[in-house]
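TL;DR need structure tokens for one chain.
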Amino acid sequence: MGSGLAIRQNLDYDVCMARPLRIEFPGAVYHITARGNAKQDIFLDNKDFLDFLYILCSVVKRYNWILHAYCLMSNHYHLLVETPEGNLSIGMRQLNGTFTQQFNRRHKRVGHLFQGRYKAILVDKDSYLLELCRYIVLNPVRAGIVRSPKYWQWSNYRETAGYGREILCLTREWTLLQFGRKREGAEEQYRQFVHEGLKEGAPWEGVKGQIYLGNDEFLKRIDTLIKGGETLKEVPKAQRYITKPELKDIFKHKGGKVDPLEAYEAHVRYGYTLKEIAEHLGVHYATISRALKRLEER
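>> reply
TL;DR here they are.
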């Protein structure tokens, strides 16, 4: 983002009425939903789900997003993303556009897959992010598909709850830190928090102007940004990865052996440089680069 540009506004129009502003700035958090055209399914089988997650992770990596939560349903999806570089629109174009092309090619279809453009609600991280993390993973339970979110494999719940790794581009550290600094205890508290959410309603009563979810102080700050009265700086990488584990906790072995999945996690998820990883493992940084390239080509 240019140093002189504090905020980017994208204003598109429907045929009959103006759409809400698309507000982008470094550090913005969004709840994103996209639905199938005419409410049709956008995931027809497991391969479609997997293809979408692969494309999503490539977008998260390329645009330096932070993915806090996700849930894929048959005819729509939910994402909860943070954009340290204020680049939501370009990433979403790649995500939906690439998946549409792949879906149509695979199923021998043409035309639009999604119903219009995606919906993005700008979220007050301090007040609503944790509640949305819970709301999103409870979607298949509320829909009556499963009895517990742990039985739905197409959301982040299992990984955040500590049942195993699902995808490499999920960031669960912020969520778990809200429940404590010890991982096992935080995971247990998170599971309890999600379970209690079945008694709660959806958080959408707090939505203002179709695109804001936050308290009055948050709305005033956004209003100041729109009017050009405040300049936001990009969140430094060191701050984005402040809770990252040490390399010795990521890599199980040293001495020349490179696990591509561990290398991907260290480099993409936690922001370690190729040089830092190579020095830790005692290999040339080009070895790490090749391992990551092989993983992306799978």
